[in-house]
Design goal:
The protein has 3 helices and 23 strands. By secondary structure, the chain is mainly beta. It folds into 2 domains: 219 residues, Jelly Rolls, CATH 2.60.120.260; 116 residues, Immunoglobulin-like. Strands 5-4-3-8-14-10-11 form a 7-stranded antiparallel sheet, with no helix packed on it. It has a 6-stranded antiparallel sheet with strand order 1-2-15-9-13-12.
Length: 371
């Protein structure tokens, strides 16, 4: 019951959500956006998001969206694309990379060609996949802040989320009148944790099947004169595409670790976030409820607990807060493990979990030292 109240409170009191109906046919058209009906998936392709969960806590989910996506390379950015001609590409590869998996519309090997042209001659490409949320899973998705995460060469993609609404034509219109309304929104991302995060919480609130579509540009040439060093570093990161489902209420927004060899400790700098207007029903305002941070440090190789720390930090009075905690990095009188695992949970001192992060694995010896 408490979880349902938390979800309802977060939904009602955060930023207004979009209406559950499309705006109409007058909305802007995205030039080049894939058009046409969506065909049934081939048997070899399974887009069940539940099977793609790679990390889970009571408050968070991480979903890896690697796999075959619909694919169409184009010579010009706004060239029209028809879905019935789209093939398949294994994400998150690049269509210009040797060994990339490209299939034609019949799900057969394309032999590195697309309509008799070498794939590396196409400067742009569309990739997309469906994300179907069942009715019984709606509360779970609405109870989180949902982000599409792109890293490596995908990080500068244009991201669109669309929905297809069935509609009945008016009695005085021809039977051939369009029976599906397509609502498309472009989503802007922010740089975070070595990639780009695109919040798609509102787009996924529509009561219709969703498509995630990316318009990609071929990677910049490494020796191009206008390519900066930071561009090269961003595009050299391992390609990744996935979804992060974070708590809707107060949460750990970021954590940075450093080592203190002189004291044999790990220093954790923790950024906390309390969304505007979030509250618990029934109960006092969330900014008045004292919080506690629970840290647990494990030896990742031996899977044993090294240290525990429970730290009362008081209420999160402002929308953001930074807390610095220290925890001994080893068992009494022992050197630090070769590899450590940190678990972090935020609770109320009166009981109740507000956030629990995915475990963080790291090598103590490779952390930056405390200055």
């Amino acid at each position: 019951m408490l979880q349902v109240l938390l979800v309802l409170a977060g939904l009602c009191l955060q930023e207004p959500t979009k209406p559950p109906v499309p705006r109409g046919d007058e909305e802007d058209v995205i030039p080049g956006f894939p058009d046409g009906e969506i065909a049934r998936l081939p048997d070899r392709i399974d887009w069940n998001w539940e099977k793609a969960v790679t990390a889970k806590t009571p408050m968070r989910l991480r979903i890896d969206l690697a796999g075959l996506w619909r694919f169409a390379p184009v010579l010009e950015k706004e060239a029209p694309v028809s879905r019935n001609e789209m093939g398949w590409m294994k994400m998150p590869e690049l269509w210009t990379s040797p060994g990339s998996v490209i299939l034609d519309a019949r799900s057969r090997g394309a032999d590195g060609l697309w309509k008799n042209r070498p794939l590396d001659k196409f400067p742009f490409a569309w990739v997309e996949r469906d994300l179907v949320i069942r009715n019984e899973d709606t509360i779970q998705w609405l109870g989180h802040r949902n982000f599409l995460v792109l890293r490596g060469p995908w990080a500068d993609a244009e991201v669109f989320v669309s929905q297809r609404f069935k509609k009945e034509p008016p009695p005085d219109e021809s039977k051939d009148a369009k029976s599906v309304h397509v609502h498309v929104e472009q989503v802007t991302g922010v740089e975070r944790e070595g990639g780009r995060w695109f919040e798609i919480s509102e787009q996924l609130a529509y009561p219709a099947p969703n498509q995630i579509s990316l318009r990609l540009r071929a990677p910049l040439e490494a020796d191009a004169s206008d390519v900066t060093e930071s561009d090269r570093e961003d595009k050299s990161a391992s390609p990744y595409v996935g979804i992060e489902m974070l708590p809707n209420g107060p949460r750990v927004d970021a954590i940075r670790l450093r080592r203190d060899p002189a004291r044999g400790e790990i220093e954790a700098t923790i950024d906390l976030l309390r969304p505007v207007g979030y509250m618990v029903l029934p109960g006092p305002p969330i900014k008045t409820i004292p919080m506690i941070l629970k840290l647990r440090l494990d030896d990742a190789d031996r899977d044993v607990v090294v240290r525990k720390l429970d730290e009362e930090i008081g209420p999160i009075k402002d929308n953001t807060r930074r807390v610095v905690l220290r925890i001994p990095w080893s068992e009494e009188g022992q050197p630090p493990p070769a590899k450590s695992r940190l678990r972090l949970r935020m609770e109320s001192t009166a009981g109740g979990i507000f956030d629990e992060m995915h475990p963080i694995e790291f090598v103590p010896a490779k952390l930056d030292a405390v200055e």
